[in-house]
Design a protein that fits this description.
The complex is a heterodimer.
Chain A (H helix, E strand, L loop, with lengths): L12 E5 L3 E2 L5 E2 L2 E8 L9 E5 L26 E2 L4 E2 L4 E5 L14 E2 L4 E2 L9 H14 L7 E5 L1 H12 L6 E5 L7 H15 L17 H15 L2 H7 L18 H16 L2 H13 L10 H4 L6 E7 L7 H13 L4 E6 L13 H16 L2
Chain B lengths: L2 H12 L6 E5 L5 H10 L2 E6 L2 H9 L3 E4 L14 E7 L8 H11 E9 L4 H8 L24 H10 L2 E10 L2 E2 L4 H4 L2 E8 L1
Parallel strand pairs in B: 1-2, 1-4, 2-3, 4-5
Antiparallel strand pairs in B: 5-8, 6-7, 6-8
The chains are: A alpha/beta, B alpha/beta.
């Protein structure tokens, strides 16, 4: 995508909240900070704001670059900018780093104002509901009463759903991509293996590794490698790597022999360097715990009774972590409540990661849907 | 759009109550739903498998669900729609019986329209020894999606056998109703169905 449609250079901002946040777990955060970024301009009616929610390893840096020579732009840059599907000529787009994150918002890595030391294991376990409440507090601070849309993929899609449940009158459209209304047992199992890799790393120190100037990099690296396998489809991996060898011959060793291994190691190393293990633990738990039907005898249709927002639900054919079937469950519960909903099942080979790609049909869908929202402003 | 197609829409609209909840199976670009929304303020949902048709329906501001009708309507509650419409698609379906039963499970009523294979122009072409090609059957034998063609008589028997009630039936040729020898003179058959 051409640079001329980019939002260009951006700056992260920090919002401070002194009103305590009641958490689902029963605990309370006395005060907290949220890192966020915005693109485009809030109109006079303040009705053109779109909140972009991030997934497991994302953050508030959704689009643009901090410096001209940054190697990569924000994680969903292909979606956002003047003339891109989420058009910043029409919309005021907001990205937030969720609570418990490690990119500037309050989390294990940040300083606990009480002790003046990193929170570490003391930082509470937060849920999707808590995140949405914190995001709503940010919207209050920005003077935004009603969001034109909340959009997210995967765990981000769960936040979009939660917005329509927690604040039915404050969100007009929810764009829920490659998501589910709860995790399957298999997905919880993947998360548990990732967590065990981190927790059993000798450098984890029960989550208080900052004190020892250590990082459980080995565990985080394995967690990320496992994750990466599940985000891709078998076909995508086969096409990208197949059984290609790193060097010409089989080496009869446990060093990197296959290209696939090389890729996984690279991804794991990079991630272990820049991400925080406590954040990974908390993000996966938020995924595990999300289940809006839980208080409604597992009946999602009943849980969705209070929703007033309109929905676009999108899934990808090769996504086996959040399969099209899971999206159809969301669609069914919305239909049962006679809500306004469209559902697209995009033919894609990239597995779960397809939601971050700029496939023309996929982006055509989002362009058309956001045009409809823009016409309602 | 041909005059006949609009006539088709007008008949369907006549059979649908104002403000009804309507499901249009195989909605293509959403023209029928758009028409019904405009004229009857229905709460409409389309089902469409094809990417391009799906996107065109969305662009019209309509609700559209992407799925394959062959797998049934399992994502829809029983009796959750006032009307389920299958317009000129029945003949192209593999699971013909299943979809009609599914329509009457999900809908309180159903509308099915199809090209009458017994139409005299089709019969003449067959007598001349060739597969029929006409306005309602615009395909050659080698590129037709139509695999389950039937006559009006066939469909009447199908309804009896499957305990489906025919609430109304209208046969059209070039947009005009046919009352005499419909199975011979009619090009397009339209049925309003209920469960018996």
């Amino acid at each position: 995508m051409s640079e001329k449609n980019s939002v260009g250079l951006v700056k992260a901002k920090l919002a401070q909240f002194t009103k305590p946040l009641q958490l689902t777990s029963g605990k309370k955060l006395p005060s907290y900070e949220l890192a966020y970024e915005t693109y485009g301009t809030l109109n006079a009616k303040k009705n053109n704001a779109v909140l972009v929610c991030h997934a497991l390893s994302g953050n508030h840096h959704v689009a643009g670059r901090y410096k001209k020579d940054d190697k990569y732009p924000g994680w969903w840059d292909n979606l956002i900018g003047p003339g891109r599907p989420l058009d910043t000529n029409r919309f005021f787009v907001i990205g937030v780093n969720n609570l418990g994150g490690c990119h500037g918002s309050s989390g294990s890595k940040s300083i606990n104002p009480k002790t003046k030391k990193p929170w570490g294991s003391d930082f509470p376990i937060v849920t999707v509901e808590d995140w949405v409440n914190a995001q709503a507090a940010l919207m209050d601070q920005l003077g935004i009463d009603s969001l034109a849309a909340v959009i997210g993929g995967s765990l981000g899609g769960m936040q979009a759903i939660q917005w329509t449940l927690s604040y039915p009158k404050r969100v007009r459209h929810a764009v829920v991509i490659a998501a589910a209304s709860n995790l399957t047992a298999q997905n919880v199992a993947f998360n548990e293996v990732a967590r065990q890799a981190i927790i059993t790393d000798p450098d984890f120190y029960n989550g208080d590794y900052y004190r020892f100037k250590k990082k459980p990099k080995r565990g985080l690296r394995i967690a990320r490698m496992l994750g990466h396998i599940t985000y891709l489809s078998d076909d995508a991996m086969g096409m990208k790597f197949g059984r290609k060898l790193k060097n010409k011959n089989i080496e009869y060793s446990f060093d990197v022999n296959f290209e696939m291994e090389s890729y996984l190691h690279h991804q794991g190393d990079k991630f272990a360097e820049e991400f925080d293990a406590n954040t990974y633990l908390r993000m996966t738990r938020a995924l595990d715990y999300f289940d809006p039907a839980k208080d409604y005898q597992d009946n999602l249709s009943k849980a969705f009774k209070k929703i007033e927002s309109e929905f676009l639900v999108v899934s990808f054919t090769s996504d086996w972590r959040f399969s099209p079937q899971r999206s159809k469950e969301i669609v069914k519960a919305l239909l049962d409540n006679e809500l306004t909903v469209s559902y697209a099942e995009v033919t894609a080979q990239h597995g779960h990661d397809a939601f971050l790609m700029s496939d023309p049909h996929y982006h055509g869908i989002l362009t058309a849907y956001f045009k409809k929202i823009a016409n309602q402003l | 759009m041909s005059a006949q197609f609009r006539q088709d829409f007008a008949v369907i609209a006549n059979w649908i109550p104002f403000g009804a909840k309507v499901l249009d199976l195989g909605c293509e670009d959403g023209s029928l739903l758009k028409f019904l929304e405009g004229s009857l303020e229905v709460k409409g949902y389309g089902i469409e498998k094809d990417d391009a048709h799906w996107l065109n329906t969305l662009k019209q501001g309509l609700n559209v669900i992407q799925m394959d009708l062959e797998s049934g309507l399992s994502g829809f509650e029983s009796q959750s729609f006032d009307m389920v419409v299958l317009s000129q698609t029945l003949q192209a379906m593999h699971n013909t019986e299943k979809i009609v039963h599914e329509m009457l499970r999900v809908g309180k009523e159903a509308i099915v329209t199809f090209p009458n294979f017994g139409y005299w122009r089709h019969r003449i072409q067959l007598m001349r020894g060739q597969m029929p090609v006409s306005k309602t059957l615009p395909y050659e034998w080698y590129n037709t999606p139509n695999i389950h063609l039937c006559t009006i008589k066939d469909f009447d028997e199908f309804c009896v056998k499957n305990k489906i009630g025919v609430k109304e039936r209208l046969i059209l040729t070039q947009g005009k109703p046919i009352h005499v020898m419909p199975n011979l003179m009619g090009a397009l058959a339209m049925y309003r169905l209920v469960s018996k």
